[in-house]
Amino acid sequence: MSGLAILIPVALLMGLAGLAFFFWAMRNGQFEDLDGAAQRVLIDDDAPNQDKSADDSEGRGKRKNG
Questions:
Q1: Element (H or E) spanning 11, and its range?
Q2: Contact of 36 with 42, CB cutoff 8 Å
Q3: Cα(58)–Cα(33) distance, rounded to whole angstroms?
Q4: What is the pLDDT of residues 1-47, one digit of tens each?
């Protein structure tokens, strides 16, 4: 019985802490763009690598010719 006297207030404090963090996250805009992060994973940023491969192919051509 004395265990419940400790566990119930601890559980209530943990619930209030979770609720406070939820409202803090909502206030700071954590839930505004839910799809953007998922779509940014799929965006392929190969533009710098394509330039690098083009430079490599030109360099190989120069080596063969020169």
A1: helix 2-27
A2: no
A3: 42
A4: 889 999 999 999 999 999 999 999 999 988 888 888 888 888 887 76
